[in-house]
Amino acid sequence: MAALASAQKIKAKFGDLISEPVEFRGEISLTLADAQQIFEVCSFAKHQAGFDYLVDITSIDNYGEDPRWAVVYHLRSVKNGEELRITTPLSEEKSELPSVLGVWRTANWHEREIYDMMGIRFAGHPDLRRILMWEGYPYFPLRKDFPLAGKPTDLPGLAFTRPAPLEGGPFVTAPGRDAIEREPRVRTPEN
Questions:
Q1: Phi, psi dihedral angles at 38 (to 5 degrees)
Q2: Distance between CA 101 and CA 88 in Å, rounded?
């Protein structure tokens, strides 16, 4: 398996900063202990280990734990079709790591989305601004401490100024024959 050999090559280069490669169901994962080294690790993964395509960057909120976040880089080798996942923990106090835009230009959108939804900053990003929410929006909607119904606001001109009633959550439905009957947000108290 080429991905395992490449992961071991990355491990050999960075030593104790990188965990031993973990294989699960054909997928190889590495954990980088120091998030501040992510640019160097990703650059090596691209130029020396052959992972020339950044599929995605995601973030995980481990609310209530330390470190609070994990940032996950999904890499692919177009040549051999292998994939590699690099995860790095990030504490709430630091909540910033180097941008990998200098390695993969597609990181631009991924990093902006993570900043917009989670509030994690990327040092060295040339245009780190919101991509989904409007500028000036004070919250980060994908954090686990953000209420599912949203937060009330006194800002004028917004479509919603009160949290939407979810009546049990966004995916809770009631028995019924069609979707309109089952959808909790269309039911009235009389129903």
A1: -60, -35
A2: 17
Q: Which two tokens stand for residue 35?
A: 């998030």
d(CA 42, CA 53): 11
Both 71 and 159 in one domain: the answer is no
Residue numbers of the domain that contains 162 = 147-191
pLDDT in tens, 72-81: 999 999 998 8
pTM of the model: 0.78
Q: What DSSP string describes 72-113?
A: EEEEE-TTT--EEEEEEEE-TTT-EEE--TTT-TTHHHHHHH
**Residues 67-110: pLDDT tens digits?**
999 999 999 999 988 999 999 999 988 889 999 999 999 999 99
Q: Are residues 122 and 139 in the same domain?
A: yes
CB 1 within 8 A of CB 36: no
SS3 category, 6: helix
Domain boundary among 129, 146, 163: 146
Residue 16 CA from chain centroid, whole number: 24
